[in-house]
């Protein structure tokens, strides 16, 4: 059931691939603003890099949420999907598709942004790019899961867009803290497995609760 | 047990709840005002100054700050419990309770932040510090405001109730996670000292506990007043509300 739903999500997304490219472009453009705003000095950028890249990733995840829920809600296909299968499996397929098409590309693009933000400046033998990728790999699924709950709640609301951000950003804070501090710890040549383990723990908690909550919320929005 | 359940079910009836809260309210307000008067007298005039940290009068801020901070968290937990009751037993009045707690809770959160800031300036030398407790309190304020924003953006009240109830529950699962994350991240605020033995001298305890009791009751009174307004708003079309409203205007015209 879930694989059928997932195939459908991917097919819909493939036919609207520009919509998926925009959040990625946003990710790159936001990060490249910082050298202009702060200073192009490498040491300064390196210090800012973990936070800037993580905040940009978080915002572009929020931007891309709309696409997976809004149009399905408006054209009524969400209602049909909910008739066809359980709300939780609809939520799971949407969350997984969202991560596959936004979270994973962010992870793949992140070395480029690490390069722009001089993440390896002054380090001869250590490569921080892997740590950045690893932290995003563990953190972005949690962002997808929490975002799905917020998006499902606001589908039937009159004002949207910004409303989701207000609801969800406070819940994103723990992920942001540990995601960015993983990279910072690596930059300071400290051990970072603890932070990665906590990111993993957040992911586990979110996997247990979020699909269920999101499914309930989808049902409320449609019903 | 059966009696307790019947009472619980009766509270689900808007009319019964409205009448009962109307009977309780004057008593709650009376006790609240007495407790707050006594508590404020003790905390503002009759309590000693803090000598050890050289804070002088700033210690008096604590008597408002601690109850406000406690209520900001208790309020959110109460909201989540009412939300669960509403979603599980489909009690409409539980949703009205959730909606009524939100503004009072947000106000308490703001009060805790404001008094903390005013206290922090002379004591720590800064209005704001990104410390664990302060940061999680700020995020709690955002959660309250998010709940209110979500609830007010639906045209259908039943959808608004259910969707924002889910948000309240998701928020309450996140509060400990947020709290421990920011605690690990940065800490300046002193530890929890109210219930530790010997941490607080008796002459500070009397005004603090009086103020705690007074503020809890004030919170209850504010929530009940809001709840009564919600009940009237949600049952505008039912007969007893019409009768209640017209009876009220008749009384006014007779006077």
UniProtKB/TrEMBL annotation, chain A:
Membrane spanning stretches: 17-36, 48-69, 106-123, 130-156, 162-184, 196-214
Principal localisation: membrane
Pfam families named among the record's database cross-references: CcmB
Membrane topology, as annotated: Multi-pass membrane protein
Protein keywords: Cell inner membrane, Cell membrane, Cytochrome c-type biogenesis, Membrane, Transmembrane, Transmembrane helix, Transport
Protein name: Heme exporter protein B
Keyword flag Repeat: no
Free-text function comment from the UniProt entry: Required for the export of heme to the periplasm for the biogenesis of c-type cytochromes.
Family in the record: Belongs to the CcmB/CycW/HelB family.
From TrEMBL, chain B:
InterPro entries: Cyt_c_assembly, Cyt_c_biogenesis_CcmC, Cyt_c_biogenesis_CcsA/CcmC
TM region positions: 24-44, 64-89, 96-118, 138-154, 166-186, 206-227
Cytochrome c assembly protein domain mapped to chain residues: 33-189
Record's bilayer topology term: Multi-pass membrane protein
Superkingdom as given in the UniProt entry: Bacteria
Main localization of the protein described in the UniProt heading: membrane
Pfam families (UniProt xref): Cytochrom_C_asm (PF01578)
Subcellular location: Cell inner membrane; Membrane
Keyword annotations: Cell inner membrane, Cell membrane, Cytochrome c-type biogenesis, Membrane, Transmembrane, Transmembrane helix, Transport
Family assignment from sequence similarity: Belongs to the CcmC/CycZ/HelC family.
Role, per record: Required for the export of heme to the periplasm for the biogenesis of c-type cytochromes.
NCBIfam families, alphabetized: ccmC
Protein name: Heme exporter protein C
